[in-house]
Amino acid sequence: MRKNYSTAFLHRRLLLFCMLAGGLFWSGVQAQYCLPQYVNPCTSNDYIDGFQFNTINQVGTGCPNPGVNNYTDYTSTVNTTVIAGNTYTAICSSPPVFGQYFVMFIDLNKDMDFDDPGEFFDIGYAAGGTSIGAQITIPCNVQGDTTRLRVLCRYNTAVLTQASVCDTNLSFGEVEDYTLIIQRPQRNALMSHFDSPITDCGLTASEPVTLCMMNCGLDTIQSGQVCYRINGGPYVCESFNTTIFPQDTLCHTFATNANLGMAGTYSFDGYLVVAGDTTAVDDSLFAHIVDNVPIVNSLPYAENFDITAGGWSTVGSPSSWEWGVPNNVFITAAASSPNAWVTRLDSLYYANENSYIISPCFDFSALTTDPQILFSHIFNTEGFLDEGWLDASTDGGATWSKVGTSLTGYNWYNDSLNSTWDGNSTATFGQWRTAYHKLDGVAGAGNVRLRFFMTTDGFTNFEGFGVDNISILDTIWNTGVAAVNSPRNGCELTATEQVSIDIVNYGTHAISNFPVCYVVDGGAPVCEMITTTILPGGTLTYVFAGVADLSMLGPHAVTTYTNLATDLLTDGDSMLVDLTNYPILNT
Fold first, then answer.
1. The whole model's pTM is what?
2. Among candidate residues 216, 88, 74, 215, the one with its CA nearest the CA of residue 143
3. How does pLDDT run across 254-269, given as a tens digit for each residue?
């Protein structure tokens, strides 16, 4: 007997078949991770020469699969087990010749891709034959299971993004996959961070200490003990009896405060104890650094960095700022030996750097006029791309403002477009310059901080910046010769040539009653007294009463200079003019 099926029934069967077929097709597509594509094989000496993460220790792996899109799948042979909430170090090594930029991915939610927030980790650039490391924290809320870890590299210093995981137009490099096993213990309290104290100005002898802990286990925590110590001293321990649900955080403020009344650096350690917690590796924190930054409340301030770092410190990741003895090609030495702050004492600054050195705290609440900052500096950077500048803050570093523009100050920003320092400070290797500027808007502020900031791109690197001999003054005395108007080249110059110069007051104080001098061909100085008052920023054209003997035919050298006793800035004080006395030819 032949069965009769209605049209509706057949449509339902056809729809079910299509859904099943589509589901199978979709499942098949999703079951495979995407792969990036490289234009060149990794035999070009662009590959991951080493990868270390927890127990993974792949060293000297070279380029095993140049014919398979520079991809090596280690998932069936190499794995490591990590604990949710814990932090591990990933170390990537470049091949001997060419530097590589490294990134890492973890499929935390096991959806067969690396596209989700938190699944991308920027490791950074390692030059040829070197390694670079980064701290990788496994989120506390991730599900414990087996998943995939990917590490990828590309030649040159340009930064890679999360989209590079499936980039189909990468130039040189390699990609590797590993198996990652994530565990979430039944009971696991981890020490998260010190919430206080933190680095600040004028810390006291009674600073609150707050330690935060997180429940990264599956069970609820009801109680425990938490402890801290300072600079390796005895621990201060207290109990807590507060419920911490899974993935929640508890911050405990101790009844016993910390004595940080002396200016200096303090190192805090902490640990916690929770019954039944068998994961001890994340129960402690070490070396939480707190600086009690000294407060400067009187002027003049002067720091040459020769004995100590002067209470200045570096911030940024990465930061190439170092205090010590410079020994480079352009930055050959400190402005005043032996020490200065420079970006790498004997090497090049980092790619993709945003870093700075930050000052102690200045209390200018008693000032009614803005003071002047004066310092020695030197720089050697990639012009218009790697730049530096000075910032000031009146709220302890919460907000910052750039000091000055290219049109203000003395020896201030040489990049008029961006108001920054970049390129070379001078044409002479090892030559430092003195710069100064008014610290606009800081008078009356009680929590002022300064920072010398540097930013770089991902490509060419140079030696960078150097800062030395920082002073902050109420006023600055500075004058110099801006131009020599006469004498000049001429025919049959005489023994009574006029000497005329333009004198500029570069300082912040009116000046008068100081000597100016000239020297002809290395002879005795001829000095005369300026009695006219020159206001700040003003110019005086002065004609010497004395005359210059240039009657001898041939070349002459005339040096003119100012000699203001309170002027400590000698660059710009003098000007040399080379000229020639030509004969008149009678034919």
1. 0.68
2. 216
3. 999 999 999 889 999 9
